Amino acid sequence: MRTLSFALILLLGAASAGALAQTAAAAADPLAKPTPPAQPAAPAAAPVAPTAPPAAAPTAIGPAVVVPVPPAAETVFAAPPIALPAGADASAVATSDAGTDAAADPGALPPAALASDPDINILGQRVTPGSRMRVMWRAGTSFIGDPMDVPVVIVHGLQPGPVLCLTGGIHGDELNGVEVIRRVMASLDAQTLVGTVIGVPIVNMAGFSRGSRYLPDRRDLNRFFPGNPNGSSASRIAHDFFSQVIRRCSAVIDFHTGSFDRANLPQVRGDMRIPSVVELTRGFGATAVLHTPGAPGMLRRAATDRGIPAVTFELGAPVRLEPAEIEHGVNAIETLLNNYGMTQRVRMWREPQPIFYESRWVRAPNSGMLFADVRLGDRVRQGQRLGRIINPLNDDTSELVAPIRGRILGMALNQVVLPGYAAFHIGEEASEAQVIRDATIAPTPTVETERMDEGAAGADAPTEGSTEQVEEFGGS
Ligand SMILES: [Zn+2]
Questions:
Q1: Given its phi and psi angles, is residue 70 left (phi above 0), alpha (psi -120 to 50 degrees) or beta?
Q2: Ligand 1 mean position to 274 CA, how many Å?
Q3: pTM for this structure?
């Protein structure tokens, strides 16, 4: 929380730099209008963030409150030292703050995108400060030539600040994030927002309209970022979206759910080897955080490769709309907006801090019908039975047992399974430092997690292998 508060101070400080200059000018010119611009009436008894230390909770929080940044703060709140793993693209990490003065703070979202021009130009439209606009991104045309237009909602605050991007529906059958983004965007007020929020609830409109995870050609869009303007259809769509929208973002939150009849407890996944990603994961309130490096072609990995901190936000199961998961997602994003000083609303969380986990999968020992004994979010002890697999042909029954004490972060819905099927995803609580250390030392074990939930080709998703190979070998 201290670090987040620091980020908030930094951002407020950065956002206030212009106001400071104006204030100085106003002092010299008695006729000048006072700055900052008139604020809307503060809500009665504006609450103070319950978890923020006093130094970071100015009671007069408003759009242009000037919060002096003590020089010492940078050292006090510096992120823990993180050694880059061998082979990591140091330049990608280093460029995360390119163009800003916040290089010493890997966590602050760079507001540089708006520094020179108060308007934001996106998809051929000019959005002025203090306004909201819905513009269309043309993802291409359908097989019969109909345009595939995707709404992009921009809420551009009166005051400059970070550009937070929310993307959903890259897998067209994953619905919870679509509703989270819709609610968050509808709740934002451009008059009081600091910075900009860009929401794209349904990136893969073609998949969404057919209730399918994939693009019409069975490709997984989340394997083609940042794309190629001369590549396959999926690669072109990815490139256009990445260059026109994602490159404008200071940070990206990409919403997903479990895939193929699996459900996930709300959880944020990011590459914890990247300091700006670690900082981002701290902002979602009481949300589980997992390290996963991200498979090549995933939106968040393409973003972090270009210095834009990005995470995946997993919420529930595909194909359905789950009120509790959606509520969690909305709360988490509102908390993030607060933590970055972009909004001033306060949410009460029972557990305000993120919970970091290391995780492992429990696989089916035999084939048969899976019946779970546990529910998503349950805490289990080592040796506890998680479920049974019953063979309908010979009545043989086998058990799945928890190898560790932990929490059910993800699980397969009851279904017919084959031997080796990943049925339960168990998280073991760990400190943030531990997660970062292990991610740096052994970054690969949790690649499996993405194979399960984010659509990488693997034994459990045989239909996806061919498209990736086609792309990889230049077949299209
Ligand atoms: Zn997904």
A1: beta
A2: 22
A3: 0.73
Task: Provide the token pair at 331.
Answer: 């709360």
- Pairing mode of beta strands 355-363, 288-291: parallel
Q: Which residue has the tokens 């400059």?
A: 160
Q: Is 244 among the domain residues? A: yes
Shared-domain flag, residues 214 and 118: yes
Is 6 part of any domain? no
Structure tokens belonging to residue 416: 């017919």
**H-run or E-run covering 368:** strand 368-372
Which residues constitute the domain of residue 380?
357-455
Q: Which tens digits make up the pLDDT trace of 236-258?
A: 999 999 999 999 999 999 999 99
Cα separations in angstroms, 248 against 18, 100, 235, 242, 252: 21, 14, 19, 9, 10
In this structure, are residues 361 and 449 in contact, taking their beta carbons and an 8 Å threshold?
Answer: yes
Cα of 49 vs centre of ligand 1, distance in Å, is: 32
Residues with CB under 5 A from ligand 1 (ion): 171, 174, 256
Residues 226 and 336 in one domain: yes
| Residue 192 Cα to ligand 1 middle (Å) | 32
First vs last C-alpha separation in the chain: 48
Whether pLDDT at 74 is above 50: no
My answer on whether 278 and 367 are in the same domain is no
pLDDT tens track for 157-211: 999 999 999 999 999 999 999 999 999 999 999 999 999 999 999 999 999 999 9
Burial of 183 (0-12, 13-18, 19+ CB in 10 A): middle
CA of 171 to the centre of ligand 1 (A): 5
* Alpha-carbon gap, residue 431 to 262, rounded angstroms: 27
Closest among 262, 192, 224 to 448, alpha carbons compared:
262
Nearest to 397 by CA among 407, 386, 389: 389
How far, in Å, is the centroid of ligand 1 from the Cα of 208? 12
CA distance 192 to 408: 39
pLDDT at 360: 92
Number of domains in the chain: 2
Q: How far, in Å, is the centroid of ligand 1 from the Cα of 321? A: 14
Where does 128-187 show beta strands of DSSP type E? 131-141, 147-156, 159-167
